[in-house]
Amino acid sequence: xxxxxSHASKAGTKGVPxxxxxxxxxxxxxxxxxxxxxxxxxxxxxxxRVGVTKTLLHQYFGTKEDLYVACLVPVGDRxxxxxxxxMGEGGAAPHTSLRVLHxxxxxxxxxxxxxxxxxxxxxxxxxxxxRRASEYWAAIDRLAAGGTAELLREAGSTDPLDADALKYVxxxxxxxxxxxxxxxxxxxxxxxxxxxxxxxxxxxTLTPDGHPD
Length: 213
Known about the structure:
Blueprint: H1 4-8, H2 18-40, H3 43-50, H4 54-61, H5 64-87, H6 93-108, H7 114-118, H8 128-154, H9 160-182, H10 189-204
Helix pairs in contact: 2-3, 2-5, 5-6, 5-8, 6-8, 6-10, 8-9
């Protein structure tokens, strides 16, 4: 006769395997957190998306913050791994920028709201979720700093302040492009990468006074 714990390891509610139910909960929570942010996200709404009770949600994941961290970690790992892989392929820095963007778009396709799970300004300060998110931000920023410094070196600049400024520009540019992409669901990762290439090429034709050569 199966013990309660061994039975629970095989199935969740209504005959759904436990691991499948867990994935459903994480997908629903990622959508809810991404759409509304941590502070405004509703655990009853997450439970309703899956057809379970809020109590069962707590049984699987614990607190709201525990659930958020369970959503955050796979998103952070996936994006960080994607960026590292794109930067590790070598080649000219401008091409690396497009590879990074294509990797980000590809990693987020089908779950675009996950970007806002990683970059959520409503996380409670001092908590585990904020700590884990800041670790991912710092790691991604370090990669961005290396990439932008390389781009400037290829352009003949070794000014560290140039590199620092460009890192901030790049970070905001990526966030802006993702936000635009979320509003245009018909745009595939490939289409977005081609669009970025066109935008970069157009920007490169501008002189310092903001006018085309």
